[in-house]
Design a protein that fits this description.
Elements (H helix, E strand, L loop, with lengths): L13 E5 L11 H9 L4 E8 L5 E2 L21 H4 L6 H7 L17 H7 L4 H10 L5 E6 L8 H12 L13 E5 L2 H10 L5 E5 L4 H4 L9 E4 L1 H6 L3 H7 L3 E4 L5 H10 L3 E4 L2 H8 L3
Parallel strand pairs: 1-2, 1-9, 2-4, 4-5, 5-6, 6-7, 7-8, 8-9
Antiparallel strand pairs: 2-3
Helix pairs in contact: 6-7
The protein binds SN-glycerol-3-phosphate (G3P) and calcium ion.
Calcium ion binds next to strand 2.
Protein name: Glycerophosphodiester phosphodiesterase
InterPro entries: GP_PDE_dom (IPR030395), PLC-like_Pdiesterase_TIM-brl (IPR017946)
Length: 284
């Protein structure tokens, strides 16, 4: 207990690596997540989609065109189709040069394990293994994408995997290391019904009058507003805290926004740049 007159330290803000350390490495690759762990991220964020043959893969867009050398919707492709594609070289092209000095014209060369980790599609199962093998606690924030199309199959497969890795029954007194996020209240409710110990984050792109009062869907304890919402409605954080909710903000890459989040006392910052944000917050 702090001495009289001494203000307690505010709790540290959790830094969540959005799609991995995705400023430095191709989003949603094993390389991006390894880098995020090295950079000290408290948690890793990933989006999940179901392939045509029922595997959850970490891909943001409905189609693979932007982040791979293939084309088409994830939902129409099998994991074996995705496994033949290059999910990393687009990043080198965008940056002009690969971090190891290879010029993008040389293309993607699957020569080393590091190359493979930078260019291969990542399954959620592999990401769960990475987190399980980490030498410290690393949390995972998993976002279900377009869950309505599959009528519960995304959540069913997700809960099966979480069960297999022991995340649906954390030891008594230990907070769950995994949480599920979605813009869809229905998706969160499906997960909560099957796995009540897994916390849910309700993502918000726009703020409604209900949200402004700090209300969230039933059973959800974490609000996930965009940083734009906080810029426009800085009083939201206090309202959500007053209602007993944590606030996890996305996607916070600008220094001024990190400062805003610190001033408002948010609980987690979701960012493409975990190292820089940790440095700015002076987290050790
Ligand atoms: O962490 C939430 C954030 O990722 C939501 O937006 O489009 O990056 O999935 P998006
Ligand atoms: Ca996401």
């Amino acid at each position: 207990r702090p001495a009289p007159g001494v203000r307690p330290e505010p709790p540290a803000i959790s830094v969540v690596a959005h799609r991995g350390a995705s400023e430095d490495a191709p989003e949603h690759t094993l390389a991006a997540y390894r880098k995020a762990i090295e950079d000290g991220a408290d948690a890793l964020e990933c989006d999940v989609r179901l392939t045509a043959d029922g595997h959850l893969v970490c891909v943001h867009d409905r189609r693979i065109n932007r982040t791979s050398n293939g084309r088409g919707a994830v939902s129409n492709l099998e994991l074996s189709d995705l496994a033949t594609l290059d999910f990393g070289s687009w990043k080198d092209d965008a940056a002009g040069e690969a971090p190891d000095g290879r010029h993008p014209e040389l293309g993607s060369v699957h020569e080393t394990a590091a190359d493979t980790e930078r260019t291969s599609v990542l399954t959620l199962e592999r990401l769960l293994e990475l987190v399980a093998d980490a030498d410290r606690r690393v949390e995972l924030a998993i976002e279900t994408k377009h869950p309505t199309r599959w009528a519960g199959q995304v959540e069913q497969r997700l809960v099966e995997l979480l069960e297999r890795f022991g995340h649906t029954k954390p030891p008594p007194g230990t907070p769950s290391a995994v949480r599920v996020m979605s813009f869809s209240a229905r998706s969160l409710q499906r997960v909560r019904a099957a796995a009540p110990a897994v916390p849910a984050v309700y993502l918000m792109q726009f703020i409604t009058p209900r949200h402004r009062e700090g209300r969230l869907p039933r059973g959800v304890r974490i609000a996930g507003p965009s940083v734009r919402i906080l810029r426009a409605h800085p009083d939201y954080v206090a309202k959500a805290h007053h209602a007993g909710h944590e606030v996890h903000v996305w996607t916070v890459n600008e220094e001024a926004d990190v400062e805003l989040c610190r001033e408002l006392g948010v609980d987690a910052i979701i960012t493409n740049r975990p190292k820089q944000v940790r440095n700015q917050l002076k987290l050790t």
